[in-house]
Write a structure and sequence with these properties.
Strand order of the largest sheet: 25-24-23-22-21-20-28-27-26-29
Distance between the termini: 124 Å
Helix content: 10-25%
Number of strands: 29
Largest sheet: 10 strands, antiparallel
Strand content: 35-45%
Structural class: alpha+beta
Radius of gyration: 39 Å
């Protein structure tokens, strides 16, 4: 009878079985991780197609790498499993081989998908290049050689801005024959954002002329229009034209408005009817009175007739009969909208073939006029110097026939101007630069700047001045990355004295410009700029220009500056 295993042998066998179990578990865990990594890779690779993003391609590449790492872990675990029976390890090795074959197939699938995607992207890039080249060519043609002359031959006279919309009068053939005359009113749309203190608004209109020919006019306008301001009723309503037309009289001392027996709007009170007619009975000569508001002004309504008063409701107002007055509260204010402001912007006309004409403009609204206008002598005799800073906006086009590339769209930029109020022989005039361009709201890789060459004040002192001529072309210089093009284009503008800033110098400048960089680049735009806080030199005030009282934007003194168009 043989002796059984010794205690030492039993302990050794238990340790071996423990190692076997641990090694088997390591192999099985590695295979589980490899299967999971494979499932994720199958999903990631399937997502790679012709329209896949770079992130999706990267995810697929990473998933393939993770499967490779996981399979290496399986191979290492099998090789280290000395205690696992060979037959069992052969089964594990077979599964490793199957997963490895699936990995090779998946890797080939990803390579094919990436090649197809690259081909599709190249085709899309080429189509985009052709589209941009065509767009650039069309808009460059639309800008043309003298775009500032499209609008009735003057950079501003062909445009007017009112509550009804933006009216454009354009004659792009420049022949004044009317053969291509465009007369259209564009409707106000959404906000176009702000450029500094200038608020932008979109304008557009479509005109269907049949035969699939849709004429589309778009514009973006920037204004320095202020928000409504509160003014004391006592001082504002003293001026008859500031009062509602149904107010026949106003006595500031008693704060009393006499209301006509007529239909009134913006009357609020819980005592007014919401339907039909309400009668306010009288008791002898006692006054019927109640609280309310009139055009947003708080106060008290009184019926002062010897007989009853009535109020009749309608959707568009309340009609009063009898003798009515309204006494506003002490310190009451009225909200006064700002209707006096400057503006500048660009205009684009398209037909079924794309961009047809493009131009830029500037102008005034309300009572900002050329009253008390500067004359050439007045500007030159002011003396001193001032700098102005502001914003510019417009359209640009690139059309490179040699490379077959192009681009087009809208731009925004900064403008800086320097004005010298002396006679031309001693260096008077105005000049500037437009830089810090954004093209289609993106900062370009190339650095653009446009020099606005010095020009003297308009000799005619007319506001606006006469149409552009060809007497002095080439008054802008466009630079790209410091490389200057030949002088080209034109620019013009108007100076205004709209606020009292402690000097006698103009406080605002608006204008338009056109520039070219060789035969490949064109732009047309407009700008608005305000005098910097610290002028370079303050002038003594001539007797003809006394110090103005501080006040809101008002009818201003203005003067025209002009560069003729080529």
């Amino acid at each position: 009878m043989s002796a059984g295993p010794t205690e030492a042998e039993k302990a050794e066998e238990m340790e071996r079985k423990g190692r076997e179990t641990s090694q088997r578990t390591a192999i099985r865990d590695a295979l589980t991780a490899a299967r999971a990594a494979m499932d994720r890779a199958v999903t990631a690779v399937a997502a790679v197609n012709d329209t896949a993003t770079d992130a999706q391609v990267t995810a697929a590449d990473t998933a393939i790498t993770n499967v490779t790492t996981a399979l290496n872990g399986v191979r290492t675990a099998i090789g280290a499993a000395a205690e696992v029976p060979e037959a069992e390890k052969t089964g594990y090795s077979g599964e490793h081989t199957s997963l490895s074959n699936q990995l090779r197939s998946l890797t080939d699938q990803l390579a094919t998908a990436k090649t197809s995607r690259d081909t599709a992207m190249d085709a899309a890039d080429e189509a985009k290049r052709k589209e941009m080249a065509a767009t650039g060519m069309a808009l460059k043609t639309a800008i043309g050689a003298a775009p500032l002359s499209y609008l009735s031959g003057d950079g501003s006279a062909g445009v007017s801005l009112a509550s009804a919309g933006l009216t454009v009068q354009a004659d792009p053939d420049l022949a004044n024959t009317g053969s291509t005359l465009i007369s259209v009113t564009l409707e106000e749309g959404d906000s176009a954002g702000s450029l500094g203190d200038w608020k932008g608004i979109h304008y557009a209109t479509e005109v269907d002329e049949g035969d699939d020919d849709m004429k589309v006019n778009t514009a973006v306008i920037y204004t320095n229009k202020d928000s409504a301001k509160s003014e004391p009723v006592e001082t504002y309503y003293v001026t008859v034209s500031n009062r509602p037309t149904q107010v026949s009289n106003y006595v500031p001392a008693t704060k009393t408005l006499t209301l006509d027996a007529a239909k009134h709007m913006k009357m609020e009170s819980s005592e007014f009817p919401t339907a039909g007619t309400k009668t306010y009975d009288k008791s002898g000569n006692d006054k019927a009175e109640f609280r309310g508001s009139y055009h947003g002004i708080a106060g008290t309504y009184f019926c002062t007739s010897t007989e009853a008063c009535t109020a009749t409701y309608a959707a568009d107002g309340i009609t009063l009969a009898g003798t009515w007055t309204f006494v506003h509260d002490p310190g009451a204010t009225v909200s006064v909208p700002s209707n006096d402001y400057l503006y500048f912007g660009w205009w684009l006309h398209k037909d079924k073939d794309g961009s047809k004409y493009a131009s830029a403009f500037y102008g005034t609204a309300g009572t900002v006029t050329s009253e008390n206008a500067y004359t050439t002598t007045t500007l030159e005799n002011l003396g001193g110097m001032a700098t102005y800073s502001g914003k510019a906006a417009g359209k640009f086009a690139i059309d490179n026939l040699l490379t077959g590339t192009g681009d087009a769209g809208h731009f925004t930029a900064d403008v800086k101007l320097t004005a010298k109020f002396d006679a031309a022989p001693s260096g008077g005039g105005i000049s500037g630069v437009i830089d810090n361009f954004y093209l289609n709201d993106v900062k370009p890789k190339d650095t653009w700047s446009v020099e606005l060459k010095n020009t003297s004040w308009d000799a005619n002192a007319n506001f606006p001045s006469a149409a552009f001529s060809t007497a002095n072309p080439d008054h802008t210089v466009w630079s790209i990355n410091g490389r200057k093009a030949e002088a080209s284009g034109s620019w013009k503008g108007t100076v205004y004295d709209l606020e009292d800033d402690g000097s006698n110098l103009p406080t605002m400048v608006t204008g338009s410009f056109h520039s070219e960089f060789g035969s490949t680049h064109s732009m047309v735009g407009a700008f608005g700029a305000e005098k910097d806080d610290r002028p370079l030199e303050l002038a003594a005030r001539p007797a003809s220009h006394s110090l103005k009282r501080p006040g809101p934007l008002r009818s201003g003194i203005c003067g025209q500056i002009q560069h003729p168009s080529p």
